[in-house]
Design a protein that fits this description.
With 209 residues, this protein is α/β, with parallel strands linked by helices. It has 3 helices and 11 strands; from the N terminus they run αβαββββββββββα. The protein starts with a helix and ends with a helix.
């Protein structure tokens, strides 16, 4: 066996190991990115229509659509985590009939009054220390068809690792993980390209030298 063949084989073993390691790093990053800490929601809240989730901690104001979804029978975001002192504006879409916002269980005293069907109608609620915890609320006229939602307030909340947000199929991927994935892909392509060049021209280059 020539020294060129030995060199090529050694290079390919190294390249193959690097590619495998890069692939493993990407999988690890993807798994970590798919994990997300969420409050432990009551089953009635987490089974609400749409099932979207928003971590709005750090924001002083946030809006929840009332009458969201294809049939206008959902709250969006369905599951919401905010700080104390956050102003939540519930805004009616005008879809799905008349809706209201009312507490089922939990510390937040959500109650928008009689059902409203007018697009653009709003109900504002400012969270306080008395609301710390998790509240399950619903639309009274449409509770039987799944118009439920959840509100988590404050930091003293029991959490769990999840692969998605409140029943949504979307996977949350932090920006850093995306960048790592792109860099890993470029490294893999570069490694394979160098391997190809070495295999094709390695012997010729050696002879010229």
């Amino acid at each position: 066996m020539s020294s060129d063949d030995v060199s090529r084989r050694a290079f390919m073993r190294t390249a193959g190991g690097a590619t495998a390691a890069a692939g493993a790093a990407t999988v690890t990053a993807g798994t970590a990115a798919a994990q997300e800490e969420q409050p432990v929601w009551p089953s009635g809240a987490s089974s609400g229509n749409v099932g979207s989730y928003q971590d709005a901690r750090g924001q002083s104001e946030v809006t929840v659509s009332v009458g969201a979804g294809d049939q206008g029978l959902a709250f969006d975001p369905t599951l919401l985590w905010v700080d104390t002192g956050t102003t939540i504006t519930f805004e009616w879409t005008g879809n799905g009939g008349a809706h209201n916002v009312q507490n089922v269980e939990g510390p937040a005293a959500l109650d928008s009054g009689d059902p409203v069907g007018e697009e653009g109608a709003t109900y504002e609620y400012e969270t306080s220390e008395e609301d710390v915890g998790i509240t399950h609320y619903h639309c009274v006229p449409h509770t039987a068809v799944g118009m439920h939602a959840g509100l988590a307030v404050g930091e003293d909340i029991e959490t769990e690792s999840t692969g998605g947000g409140g029943g949504s199929n979307a996977v949350f991927v932090p920006q850093g993980a995306r960048a790592l994935g792109v860099a890993t892909f470029i490294a893999m392509v570069s490694t394979l390209g160098l391997a190809f060049v070495f295999m094709k021209y390695g012997g010729t280059i050696t002879q010229e030298e």
